[in-house]
Design a protein that fits this description.
heterodimer, A: mainly alpha, Four Helix Bundle (Hemerythrin (Met), subunit A), B: Helix Hairpins, 3 helices
Amino acid sequence: MNIFALIIISVVVLAGALSAAFLPRLVHATLAVILTFVGVACMYFLLGAEFVGLVQIFVYVGAVAILIVFTILLTNPEEKSEGVNWLGILAAAAVFVGLAWAITNTALPGQVPEVEPLTVKQIGDTLMTDYVWPLMGIGLLLTAALIGALILVMEEKE
Amino acid sequence: MNATLPHFLIISAALFSLGLLAALSRRTAIFILIGIEMMLAAANINFIAFWRMAPRMPEGADHSGVMFVIFAIAAAAAEAAVGLALVIAIFRHHRTTKVNEINQLKG
C-alpha cells in the first residue's frame, strides 16, 4: 500500500471537506463534497474493498449528491457570509486533537497483513447467511424512509 | 514506505473534524446534513481500515467491517432522503432553510 497514493487521496479528501465547510456559494460547496466522496471511494479502493468503493460512488455521487443539488435548486438558499464561527473551529480542532492524541497513544498494528481479495460472491454469501436479518431490517428502513419522505413533501389538502 | 493503520485513522479523524466544522458553522440546513454525511464517511473509513489492517483470526476471513460499511451507507442514504424532504417541507412553510431563522419553538 503506497503512502504517496494515500497522501494524494487525503489531500483531495481534506481539501474537498474544507471547501465544503467554507465556500460561500452552495453549488460550489456541493461540488467540493462530491470530490470528497470520490476521494473516500478511492481510499476504499486503496484498502482493497472494491465493492464498497463502487457502492460509495453509486450511492453518494449518484444519488445523494443529485438529491442535494435538487434541494439547493428548489429552495434557492442564499448564504451570506456571517463571519467566521470561531467556536465551531475551536470545537472541531479540540475533537481532532483529542482523536489524534488517542490514535498516537494506542498500540496499533504497524504492518499490513497479506489477505486474499474479497470477492462480490463472498459478500453476497455473507449477506444472505450471517447478515440476513440486518438485510431485512435495512430493507424495512429504506421502505419506511421512502414512504416518510413522500408523506413529508406531499402537498397538503386545503 | 507503506501506509499503515494510524495514517488512515488520522485522515479519518481529520475528515470527521471537518465534517463537524461544517455542521457547526453552516447556517443552511442542507449543509448541516452534508457535514453529518462527512462524519459518517469518516467512520466508514475507520471500519474499512480496521477490517483490512487488523491481525487475521485463525479460523478464516471475517467480513464484518465491510458489512457494517454497506449497512451504514444504506442508513445514510435513507437519512439523507428524509432530511432533505424535511428541508423542503420546512421551506414550504417558512420560505427559508436557515436554521437560525426557524425558531418557532423557542421559549
